Amino acid sequence: MTYLIISFLTLLLVYSVVNYFYFEAPLHLDQNKSYWALDHPVAVNPSLTVDAEADIVIIGGGYTGLSAAWHLAKENPGKRIILLEAKTLGNGASGRHGGMVLPAIMPNPVRRSAEMAKLKAAYDYSVASIEKIRAIEEASGISCDLVTNGFLYTIFRKGEVAKMQKFAAQFKSYGFPIEYWDKKMVESRVGTSRYEGALYIKDGGSVHAMKLVHALKVLCEREGVAIYENSKVKEICEGKQIKLIVGDNSCKIITGHLVLATNAFTSKLGYFKGKVMPLHLVNAATRPLTDTEMQSVQWACRLPFADSRLALYHLALTPDNRIVIGGGYADYFYNNRLDFKGDKNRISNILKEELAIMFPGLHNLTFDSVWNGVMGLTMDMEEIFGLTGSHQNISYVLGYNGHGVNLSIMYGQVIADLYAGKTSAFLRARDGKSLPIPPEPFRYFGVQPILKFANWYDSKK
Ligand SMILES: Cc1cc2nc3c(=O)[nH]c(=O)nc-3n(C[C@H](O)[C@H](O)[C@H](O)COP(=O)(O)OP(=O)(O)OC[C@H]3O[C@@H](n4cnc5c(N)ncnc54)[C@H](O)[C@@H]3O)c2cc1C
Question: Which contiguous run of DSSP H or E holds residue 58?
């Protein structure tokens, strides 16, 4: 018996190691069909067709990549900067999100012991970044529908109220602009009796995903960044001079510094397989509500909100009164698969039912668009960042855990600081490290019960 158990465990270990190195699912990029992409299509740049040299190359055309390119170009005039996107700008999470702009404050269930002063420093830095989004709008001349009225963290269970009140009081005493709202207040300001209370955080708001992509693209190109779309990086050869193999024609690029801005997709390049994993989410947008429907909803404060359930429902209102809703169910597929194998109709129905419970006046409402996307998940729910590679000339920021709209813009500056060798306030406030995520099959078989538990737990109030 002991022999059998030892043999089984050895086989499992060998399988796990072999699988880790050789059986990563390929990079799969489906078309972004989000409401944002349909509402605001952005013209696509040509792909890379010749070999090139550059001082800095950025892989990934989401907010992290675009913001990094913009900051690096502004701070290093004259340097040749290339951004490579495998499909089209904003085709990843940046063009598919739930529209919420969040500062660095969400109650983190894993890291409770972080020093308050550091948390506050990180918070202040992230709030300054929200102002930067305003500056991006103004400088690019493209309105991104940015609204900065704050956001709500709504409390689903009565049993969580005391803990959240304590959280609010503690954070307030350290200067965070946070208030506890009781059930009545939530009812009168959001128009739903679904919640037992909420935390109101003054900083935050909402934005149009693809308009922000567009605005960043305009600013990057104005600073001379060369952006190539449909240009997938297939191989990275590290060295003092890094060599990249790009696109169908296998063009070569030589560069002195590389930025990995590939978030949930990063394991496909052979990096951080054990640190960031892709989690598939579904979001949906309604048609614009009529005036009568808006009156029935009574969402007077118009604040976006995310709730305390494990399935993390979140809702935002667009300027033309569409509701963008997400959450309800998350999927993980074996070996970090990126092609969505879930049941979008089922999740869409969960979201529809949730909307009708929150706002009974909307029970007949259908969605104009329903879309899926992948977010980068880390083990302790915080981003990882730093320098890597044989010559420490590859910078990276990955794994925003579904809170990356504002943070990814902010990290553009952090990457420029890393490149310049500067230790900015944010780099002092966070360590950028994270615990390892177990390899397959432990990852898959570990995540499934957690997702099942989340469903069961969320169904209880
Ligand atoms: C459904 C959903 C809802 C969300 N809602 C919110 C929200 O409301 N608020 C919030 O704060 N956060 C939210 N997030 C998270 C947020 O959208 C992300 O954290 C943020 O957009 C990450 O930006 P990024 O640039 O790092 O990554 P991405 O936007 O994913 O960009 C990575 C890019 O890299 C490209 N790429 C990958 N591999 C290669 C390669 N080999 N060569 C070239 N290019 C490559 C991809 O095509 C992609 O465009 C949500 C995420 C999802 C999926």
Answer: strand 52-59
